[in-house]
Design goal:
heterodimer, A: mainly alpha, 1 helix, about 45% helix, elongated, B: mainly alpha, three-stranded antiparallel sheet, 11 helices, globular
């Protein structure tokens, strides 16, 4: 699932601004 | 004696309500004060007509962009809900893929003007007729009806925050790896919501009304998926090249 949702995965990794 | 149930104390519910409410306010895209200042400026008739004259694909692209912007705020909301980031990454993705649009629909009631049946869109308040070019009148009517019903409950920001978290943490989503952990989080969120509703002396039926909203949200999302696949069948290139990448990833 992570493979198919790279953008969402990246957003989740970004620090909570 | 302050004990609500052996596993969750009153203090813990208060804390959870506070954290979720703060997360909501930090990520709600439009503060209520900002909205009040906009004093519900509706689109003028010629502006409405210009939206109606837009080619179908242009209006679709604009709406996909607005939905995607709103979804990014929901992702930030989720990240701030304690417990959410402790879930495995697979489940974080599953919950957001299935629930982010539902939270966007819930949040729409904050920007809905029930007096004029208009919703904040693209800098002004738009009635259903603004969206005619989409060719999805039934979906648009359902979205406006849902916003009207939700706003008629006059939920506080804290109640909206907890209901949004409750919907996001749906343990019945398929593909969840750790269903039990999500269930625990959802139950705690529901207890916090009940606790806040009681504290605000809301009449008993509100929680049941909110539960009925869950199925309405599921239907709105499946309607959206149907309309998108019908649109993509006609304009596959537009979706591939002009739609926001996150939108395609979630709904593609």
């Amino acid at each position: 699932l992570k493979e198919k949702h790279k953008i969402l995965h990246q957003l989740l990794q970004n620090s909570t601004s | 004696n302050g004990e609500t149930s052996p596993t969750v104390s009153m203090a813990e519910l208060d804390h959870l309500a506070h954290v979720v409410s703060k997360s909501h306010l930090e990520t709600c895209q439009y503060l209520r004060e900002e909205l009040q200042q906009m004093n519900c400026q509706n689109f003028l008739q010629d502006e409405v007509e210009s939206y109606q004259k837009k080619p179908r694909e242009v209006m679709w692209q604009l709406c996909a962009l607005k939905i995607t912007e709103a979804i990014q705020y929901v992702v930030e909301f989720a990240k701030r809900i304690n417990g959410f980031m402790d879930l495995c990454q697979n489940d974080q993705i599953v919950l957001l893929k299935a629930g982010s649009l539902e939270v966007v629909f819930i949040r729409m009631c904050r920007v809905f003007d029930s007096h004029n049946n208009t919703i904040y869109f693209d800098r002004k308040f738009a009635g259903p007729d603004v969206f005619k070019a989409l060719g999805c009148d039934d979906l648009i009517t359902s979205v406006f009806d849902f916003a009207k019903n939700m706003s008629s409950l006059h939920l506080t920001e804290e109640e909206l925050a907890l209901f949004s978290a409750f919907v996001l943490l749906s343990a019945d989503r398929s593909w969840l790896q750790d269903k039990l952990q999500v269930e625990k989080l959802q139950q705690k969120t529901q207890l916090a919501l009940q606790h806040v509703l009681q504290k605000n002396q809301r009449e008993d039926g509100v929680l049941n009304k909110l539960r009925c909203k869950v199925s309405a949200l599921r239907s709105l999302c499946s309607q959206h998926t149907e309309k998108l696949s019908a649109f993509r069948a006609i304009y596959p290139d537009i979706v591939r090249t002009h739609f926001p990448p996150l939108y395609k990833e979630l709904f593609g």
